[in-house]
Amino acid sequence: MQHTLRNLLLLALLLGFNQCDKTPANAVLEPYDETSLENNGGAWKTYVLANGSELSVAAPEAAGSATYSAELADLKNKMAAATGEQKDAARFWGSNAVLRWHEIARELAAEYNAAPKSNPDGTYSAPDANNPTAYPRFPFANPPYAARALALLAVAQYDALVTTWNYKFQYNRLAPYKNDASIQPLIPANDLPSYPSEDAVIAYASSEVLKFLFPGEKEFLSGRAEEHTESRLWAGANVQSDLDAGEALGKLVAERIIAYAKADKMGMANNQPGVAQLRADATARGITTQWTSLDLPARPPMLPFFFNVKTWNFDQATMIANRPAPPPAVGSAEFETAINELRDMSKNRTREQFRIASFWADGTGTYTPPGHWNRKAAELIYDKQLNELRSARVMALVNTAMHDAGVACWDTKYFYLYPRPTEMDRTIETSTGIPNFPAYTSGHSTFSGAGAEVLSYLFPDKSAELQNMAKEASESRIYGCIHYRFDSEVGLTSGKQVGQYAVQRAQTDGGE
């Protein structure tokens, strides 16, 4: 039954529809020519690996060898026997595999973005990574979890492809159709060396990391990786030894990324017993009016120690130094101005404001604000028809920035423990659900500020559009009466500052 459902998901992706009707439809992607080879890509700066040559890949058989000739003959037999469905799969995976695996990750994030319901005794059970398919399923893919997951996936793909490019140009064995003119590939040909296969590397680096992040989906993800890899044979793009080397390399990189993830302090992010100390510390700083859950029964706060999770583009000392200044004191004139705006908004919200609040809601059952910006990055990559290495670089830069934005935002939230508008005035009516964590600063604004800042640097011709999107996403939380205006404005500024650290990395990573 699960396998059937997953096949339906693949079909939905192929047709360009999103499995969850609360999220925008994925664009239909077609294979395109990759004209830029990035000959020096193997020297680009990596994230977790020391460099693109840290992991070794054995030399392949020469293109003129008997072994390679036998591989070509086997490839032609597989192409001749390929079914219509297999040929469709070859074109599906041939339309930028980096983006295809991010589609899958977003769909999983949406599927798992469901907060546990309360037990009869008024308590809430936490998802259990050791029993991921039992209710409540692990993980609860809330915005911080989704941001971290997308960043880990992106880094795995990027580090794996930098390594792949290093060995591609070291060994320089061209694709089968360059060595045998009788082979007519199903996807656009290019001059990129084929060993090791970048698609096999992506398939196994991606699937292994996602199996770690979504352990209840191992069968589905293994199936997608196997199909992705085999599709290169049906497409005429690789011989088996290209794929074998790529699979081995992808798994090695995934092991390194998973080891990093196991030590990044995410395992302590849901430390509920520690919340009492957070509150006591805030009280000692003079913060006496503090956020509390309005859920009935009261729900434990979402990932109260996510701010301790390791960041990618700056250290914790830098994060604390850049922490936003305190919000207006409850009851101050500035506070009263902000809450009066929301009182009026809840009664006189326009149709357009309601539309914006709904479009950017990105709540339960969606792939969250980080997923929203992840998808925008994918659209820009496809529009520019970037090759897979450069696509992975874009995804790593923007997704690590959004992860860092989440960590920084959660630091601010649980440092100030600022109450939601609806706590201070129960007559304020929201147009979306009320998140179960403090108000200041707005997570949507911080994620969006970071995402737009990085993408504006990478796609400068789209900067005005991206900055307007971020502003609209930020204001959407005011229109929904979820946040005060200062939550959104300060969050947007903080997010842009976070994004600049990723931009600084981009300026020195070798990919300019």
Task: Tell me about this structure.
With 512 residues, the protein is mainly α. It has helices spanning 2-15, 66-81, 84-93, 97-111, 143-171, 176-179, 198-213, 218-235, 240-262, 275-284, 316-321, 333-348, 351-359, 368-384, 388-416, 421-424, 443-458, 463-479, 485-506. α5 (143-171) packs parallel to α14.
Q: Can you give me a brief rundown of this structure?
A:
The chain is mostly helical. It is about 55% helix and about 0% strand.
Number of domains: 2
Largest sheet: none
In angstroms, what is the radius of gyration? 24 Å
Number of strands: 0
Quote the beta fraction: under 5%
Oligomerization state of this entry?
Answer: single chain
Q: How does the overall form come out from the CA principal axes?
A: elongated
The chain-level mean pLDDT equals 94
CATH architecture classification of the largest domain: Orthogonal Bundle
List the helices and strands in order. Answer: HHHHHHHHHHHHHHHHHHH
CATH class of the largest domain: Mainly Alpha
The rounded distance between the terminal residues' Cα atoms is 47 Å
Uncertain residue segments:
1-21
Query: What's the tally of helices?
Result: 19
Level of helix content?
55-70%
Helical/strand content category: mainly alpha
**CATH topology (fold) name of the largest domain:** Vanadium-containing Chloroperoxidase, domain 2
